[in-house]
Design goal:
Shape: elongated
Number of strands: 2
GO molecular function: DNA binding; DNA-binding transcription factor activity
Distance between the termini: 41 Å
Structural class: mainly alpha
Strand order of the largest sheet: 1-2
Order of helices and strands: HHHEEHHHHHHH
Keywords: DNA-binding, Transcription, Transcription regulation
Protein name: FadR family transcriptional regulator
Helix content: 55-70%
Oligomer: single chain
């Protein structure tokens, strides 16, 4: 089967996901080498690596360097509830808090941001872009960006409120990204573009646009979590 067109690695990931979920590939099975998969699908080794990295991020495969890639699970592990620090109820509460607080921090940041604040936000988005290109999810850079906005709001209490639950926010960001990878509801590129739009509004000191872009961003996160039965409407 030959693959063509754009976003090749996503097409390959979709094919492998279907094979895993249908039982054609079972837990413990070893996949062919990257070179053999590239030859089978008529794509580059790099595209195969990207596809396998995407499957690794959602817990379907395990890559053992020097040994190969093995099927780890028949079902994706989107949110990690094993530590008990994160539950469905807690995810809902975090989302609600973000919807209340971060629309305001974006508005205040557009009014009060400094040149240094903008630099910090730009650095965070550069880190996010590099992570995405490297086949990583980039939630650390995502969190850094949102905390930079909170700091630029010049409201210490709002900043501390978000910073105090930063670990939980990052966990929910990671889980949401896994959903994007698994369900194809949104590409990592589109997610990055949303953040760029928020930054552009803050740079332009446009309160209305900063509020709007942050609201839309958080609303799309909510819809993704609702569609995948993580939170209620």
């Amino acid at each position: 089967m030959k693959i063509s067109n754009q976003k090749i690695y996503e097409q390959i990931a979709d094919i492998l996901i279907e094979k895993i979920e249908s039982g054609e590939l079972n837990t413990g099975d070893k996949l062919p080498s990257i070179q053999k998969l590239a030859e089978e699908y008529g794509v580059s080794n790099a595209s195969i690596r990207e596809a396998l990295n995407a499957l690794r991020m959602i817990g379907l495969v395990e890559i053992k360097h020097g040994f190969g890639t093995f099927i780890k699970s028949q079902h994706p592990q989107l949110f990690d509830y094993s530590s008990q620090t994160l539950t469905k109820k807690r995810v809902q509460e975090i989302l609600e808090l973000r919807e209340v607080v971060e629309v305001s921090t974006a508005q205040f940041a557009s009014m009060r941001r400094t040149y240094q604040d903008i630099q910090t936000m730009e650095e965070a988005l550069c880190e996010m872009e590099k992570a995405i290109k490297a086949g990583e999810s980039g939630e650390e850079a995502d969190l850094k960006f949102h905390l930079a906005i909170a700091k630029a709001s010049r409201n210490q209490l709002l900043y501390e409120l978000l910073n105090n639950i930063a670990d939980l926010i990052q966990q929910t960001m990671k889980g949401t990204r896994k959903i994007y990878i698994y369900s194809r509801q949104k590409t990592m590129k589109k997610l990055l573009d949303e953040h760029v739009q928020i930054l552009d509004a803050i740079k332009a000191q446009d309160e209305i646009e900063a509020t709007s872009t942050m609201t839309i961003h958080l609303a799309e996160i909510r819809q993704t979590l609702v569609d995948n039965f993580i939170v209620e409407k």
